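step: validate -> pass
step: tokenize input -> pass
step: predict -> running
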Amino acid sequence: MRNLRTRAVVAALLALAVTSCASEKATGGPAASATAGDGVKGGAGVTADTITIGLMTDLTGPYASLGKSITQAQQLYFEQLNAAGGVCDRKIEVVVRDHGYDAQKAVASYTEVAPRSAAIAHFIGSPMVIALKQRIEGDKLLTIPMAWATGLLGAKAIQVTGTTYDIDMINGLDFLTKEKGIKKGDKIGHLYFEGDYGESALNGSKYAAQQLGLSVVEQKIKATDQDMSAQVSAFKSAGVKAILVSVGPRQAASLVGVALSKGMDVPFVGSNSAFAPQLLATPAAPALLKDYYVMSAGTPMSSELPAIKKLAADYAAKYAGQTIDSGVSAGYSAAVIVGEALEKACEAKDLSRDGIVNAHRGRSAWDGGFGTPMDFTVFDEPSSRASYVLKPDKKALGGMVILKEAAVSDLAKSYTVPVG
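step: predict -> pass
step: emit ->
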């Protein structure tokens, strides 16, 4: 989602932080507390009556709307958990830090919050989490990224939920060939962000294209780019028959809006980060409603699943009048994953960081009622390879409906996902 210069900045900051954090890093944070009077082994972020959970979010940067939904959904869950008695007779305390999608702030926030947290229920931003990957693993701090780059795989403490971006693009190209008339010899456009997000998605599109006899016309942009006119012109000149979209919602809106104005009648397939329901109130709405699709492992908020319907009602009651989007379900389900890991660690009488991570990794078929079965026992593979095909819909809660139920294409089954 950002370029290599971001990684360089983060790496420099991490180097500066190593000395001050060396003793903590060796022990997974502050020294683990002794076994409490209830016989439960404690650890960083755990006291006799509280468990502290960190939320590393974006409330002021490019993913602010998503960050707000994720954060509020998680606050709702932990409030509900506390109302039900908490975990291990301990109340959950939530610490929220807004890094604004800024690398320096993200590193500083992690340095502050990590030593006093038992887990991080969400961390927005592939570049930040990947740069902190070794440190998170050394700290043994269960962390749920709100990002799906393949570079996040391979660390026991980091749980990527659902699919990765490359898997979604592979399943997306399978959809285009089976449902939208794309055939061998056709050219496919791919608009993508430079950095981990875009590169992961591109890996998937190039793999699938090679297997299907397609060619990929690439257009790489920065997260700060807003006008996609030049990219649309390039795609039109190349004669692409469909366009894959692995950017942010604003860039996606510009892409489809400009394409429609230039007479490009092609389908668009977006990564899960390339849509927001707010776009349906913009001039791009007609193009999005016409032939735009989103690949995601996450069940949309318009689903009839009881867990989703209850979440929608609870969220609307707590945050009346606020937009309900995919961040609500993504955030809430991630909080449930953390909460249930804590409960299992409590059952084992081990709330140390090792105990929490091991409890989490012991679950091989989790879906929490949210419609996305995931295997948490492996961490060098995505926890799922099944993608929904979603379609924007103005009338639907969250702005999207299920066009095709979650499925794994044969191409995705045979694909070897790169790790780290």
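step: describe -> The chain has a mean pLDDT of 91.
step: cleanup -> pass
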